[in-house]
C-alpha cells in the first residue's frame, strides 16, 4: 500500500504550489501501484481495470456468494446433494405410504400369465401342494330294526375318516385372449392308511342311492313307461338299504339300475359317490388370470362354457361370481370384506366372512374366514336364499339346499356335516347326529399377501331325500316322506407342510414384510433427515452472506469517513488494498 503520511501532509499545508505538485506525484504513484498490484481504491477512482469473470463467478455474483471459502463451497455442494436425496426420498415416501405400488409389484408374480413359472406350477403342481380328502360314511346300524318297528329312531354312526392324498393337475387347458384360462381338473387319489380310522374293505349298511334316485326319475315318466320301468326295477329286488364295502360305496360298484338306458345310464355300469372326482372332471371351468386386473384374479367367469348357471331362478343365484377355492385376489383380502367361493359340489357360490387375524404353525400370520351360519338357511331367515327355492317342488327347513337340478334331477340335498347350523327338525328321527362348529364348519386360513389358503377345511355333507313313490312304498313304510338321509361328508384340507416348506413360507412372508417396513420408514427417516440438513445448510449460508455484507458495509463506511475527513482539509489520500479473490475456495491474484 502507498499513501501520504500525516507528517508529509502537515509540511505541505502552508505551501499551495507544493501541494499541487505533491498531488500529481501521488496520482502517478497510484497508477504505477495499480499496474503492479491489480487492485487500488481511491477517493476519486474505484477501479482502474475490469477483471475477466468465469461462469462460476457470474453465478456466485448473482447469488451474492462470490467471496465464498472452500468450506462454504463444500456446504453448497452438500446442499445440492441433500436436495436431490430429499426429492428421491419424498417420492419414495409417497409411493410406499399412499400407493399400492410395492404390493402390486409383488402380486405380479402370482398372476397366471401363459408360460410363466407361476402358471406352470399351477397347471402341474408338485406333491408338496397336494390336498387331503377325508371321507366319513354314515352307517345305518339299526335300519332293519327301525323298519321292522323294533327301534324308535334311526341310528347312524359316523365312520371314518378314510383319508386320501388328493393330487390335482389341470387338463384340457386353453389360455384365452381375454385374460382367462379354461381347464378341467384331473384328480388322483392315494390312500393314507396311517391317517385313516376306517378300512376300505370294511362293510357298511347305507342307503341305495341308485334306487332312491331312480324312484324320483320314474315318477316323472308317462304312465305306460313308468309301469314298465317300475316292473323292471322291482324284478331286480334292490333293497332301500344295502351292504357295501367302504371302497365300493365311495369309488364305485357295478349296479344294474344305474345302467338302465331309460334312466339315462347309457354306458354307465358303476356307481360310487366319489367316482366322478377320480379322473378328469366332467365340468369345465374358466377363470380370470389377473393379467388385466389383479382384483379379478381367480374369479370364475364361466362354468361348463356358460357365463351364468341355469340351476336356479333369478340372476343373483345364477351368477357364478366366486373364486376358485385354491386362490383368492389379495387385494380383496386387504379390505377384510366378504369373499365368495364357487363350489362345484353345490353348483353355487358360498360366502366366506372375515373372522379374525390368526397365527398358525407358531409364527405365520393368516386371515381366518368362515362360512356364515345362514348359508343354507330358509328364505324366511335369509332372504338372499329365496332364489334357491323358487325352482323346486319343496323348500326344506334351514340346513339343506335343494340341488336336484345340479345332479341331473337326482334328489341330492347338500348341507354342512351333521346338519350343522340346520333346523333340528331335519334330523328329529335320527340318533348319532351331533353338530359341532369346530368339526363341521368350513373355514380357511388365507395368506394375506399372496391369497392362497395355508390351512383350513372345506366341509360338505351329501344327503339324499327319500321320495315314497310306489317303487319304494313297500320297503320304507316307517320312514316319513321327504326324509333327508345323510350319506357321507367330506373334508378337504391342505396337506402337511414339512419344516423346510414352513421355513421357506416364513422367510418369504416376513422377508417381504420387513422390506416393505424398511422402505416405508426408511424413506420417512431420510426425508426428515435431509430436510433438516437442507434447512441447516441454508441457514448457515444465509448467515455467512449476511456476515460478509455487514463486514463490507462497515469497511466501506470507515473508508468514506477517512477520505471525507482528508478532503475537508484539501488533501487527497490514495489507499491501495490487496484483497484475495476467492472463487470456488481458491485465491486468484491479478497480474
From TrEMBL:
Query: What does the record give under GO molecular function?
Result: scavenger receptor activity
What sections of the protein cross the membrane? Answer: 73-98, 521-541
Query: One Pfam family from the UniProt entry?
Result: CD36
Keyword annotations for this protein, in alphabetical order, are: Cell membrane, Glycoprotein, Membrane, Receptor, Transmembrane, Transmembrane helix
Q: Where in the cell is it found?
A: Cell membrane
Q: What is its main location?
A: membrane
InterPro entries documented for this protein:
CD36_fam
Q: List all Polar residues biased stretches.
A: 20-33
Does the UniProt entry include the keyword Ribosomal protein? no
Entry keyword Transmembrane helix: yes
Disordered: region residues = 1-33
| GO CC annotations, alphabetized | cytoplasm; plasma membrane
Q: Which family does it belong to?
A: Belongs to the CD36 family.
How is this protein named in the record? Scavenger receptor class B member 1
